[in-house]
Amino acid sequence: MIQLKIPGKLYLAGEYGVLYPGVPALIFSVDRFMHLSFSFREEFGTIQDNNLPPIVWRRDSLVNTFGHDDYFEVLFACIGIVDRYLLALNQPLKYVDILVQTHLKENETKLGLGSSAAISVGIIKGLLRLYDLPYTPLLVYKLAVLAHIELGLEGSFGDIASCSFTGLIKYTAVDRFWLQSMVKNTPLLDLLKKKWPLLAIESLPQLDFINYLIGWTQTSASTQEMVKKLQSTPLSADFEETFQEDIKQVVDSLVLSVQTKDVPLFQAAIVKNRQILQSLAQQSGLIIETKDLSTLIDLALDHGGVAKSSGAGGGDCGLAFFEKDLSLKPVLDAWRSSNIQVLPLTIYE
Questions:
Q1: What are the extents of the domains in the chain?
Q2: Which of 12, 133, 178, 227 has the most CB atoms at less than 10 Å from its CB?
Q3: Which ranges of the chain would DSSP assign to H, the alpha helix?
Q4: Quick check: 15 pLDDT over 80?
Q5: The architecture CATH gives domain 2-204
Q6: Sign of the CA dihedral with 264 first, then 269, 270, and 275 last
Q7: Is the entire prediction scored with pTM above 0.90?
Q8: CB 160 within 8 A of CB 145
């Protein structure tokens, strides 16, 4: 039996900008996990999830008593891409029992910690280990991205990178148009060996020079839906150019501040990133910063910190940052009084 755990993730900066070619984002993995176990079996496989009824699966047909949903579409796409990889390596296919226990939800509500990415990385990494095949974080990332591409999923795949590499990373997405064109005509092993244009994943030091809090608004949002809305909204060329340059500057400032442990520079960049997202919301009509997220941010500002929404917005989580010598109790009390739930999370390396 193979057992492993996959961390959740949160965006520190660069949300939406990372959807543009060559524009980076900062993402970190958190110490709240999806646990998975894998073992071989004969004739058919099973999937057991602590939140769902168990199912039986075969490669020629899927026995599923309650119908498909996005979760299982992603899960089986990842099994499928590993099958293709195994066949390309002339490995025999076997059936597998998979047990999933997720802690990336709260009372069945998603926390915005990247459960789709976690299940993708977990399935691929677990199967490669079960078959005793060597792998790297980059191989896991590439296989998971290809599974998501096959499903037509939107996004930058930054959450997949975070779950694959862990820690705090600077991430620039692969050229999606190149990848989609290559998928159609390139053998899998050749595609995996190629250098993917624009893709860059760089590990950064810990945020040990500043205190941070993660607040959850107790409402969930769909990144896929938010991205689709943005991509269907016409924006002026001038605005898009300015937006991309502003995001690049914010990410560069944050990287420098992390490397030099410069608290004022870090906090100024967080404030600037919030302003950029507010400008995007005004131009696009997206509700990125909900009323609850605004409350979370304003209360952090009232108590000496800075804050911003994390990820696509529309709900989920916000991040707040404070100097090391500042007491966090007042803001914690204020958040709780406003129904903002504090998530006791730290960056997971």
A1: 2-204, 211-342
A2: 12
A3: 70-88, 115-130, 137-150, 158-165, 176-185, 188-193, 223-231, 237-260, 263-284, 291-302, 329-337
A4: yes
A5: 2-Layer Sandwich (3.30)
A6: positive
A7: yes
A8: yes
